[in-house]
Amino acid sequence: MYTSSLQQNILAELHHELASTRRILERVPFDQADFKPHPKSMSLWQLATHVVNLLAFKTLFVTHDSRDFLDPNAPKPGPTPTSHAELLERFEEYSTTLRKELQASTNEHLTHNFKLHRGEQVIFDHPKGTALRIMGLNHSIHHRGQLTVYLRLLDIPVPGLYGPSADDKN
């Protein structure tokens, strides 16, 4: 349902994308964690962990005004999950936190800027709502798409994300 609330629109999109992401993560085989489709690619496990850790990054867009990659005291995600169950637990934890922070936010708050930078080098400086959409949701969707390719190459059925997949039709 369409609403004029920026916060509610982002929450609705987030709800859909989190459900799709969980379906992909459920199929990531821990026993093939080291799989790489190319030497320059992340391993399957690095990529799956990155998709989950991006949820904590999205929460920063809501709760903070900036993030400096050079700041040694800046919040960082936990250690790499060591099992499939741990990956899914982290996904649920980070998803819950993100939803909670976004629900507690306001439309006005989401219009305040978030600056992503590396020292003096500004990488991104846009309203929090825009940061959530571009650097948060779109970034995650991109990497989730990469995960679907990894699954396909490993001959693991890919679930439908925006309708049935080729595997759903068989």
TrEMBL record:
Alphabetical list of InterPro entries matching this protein: DinB (IPR007837), DinB/YfiT-like (IPR034660)
Metal-binding found in the keyword field: yes
Keywords linked to the UniProt accession: Metal-binding
Binding of a divalent metal cation, residues: H50, H139, H143
Keyword Nucleotide-binding: no
Entry-linked Pfam families: DinB
GO molecular function annotation: metal ion binding
Cross-referenced Gene3D superfamilies: dinb family like domain
Family designation: Belongs to the DinB family.
Protein name, UniProt field: DinB family protein
Organism expressing this protein natively: Hymenobacter telluris
Classification lineage: Bacteria, Pseudomonadati, Bacteroidota, Cytophagia, Cytophagales
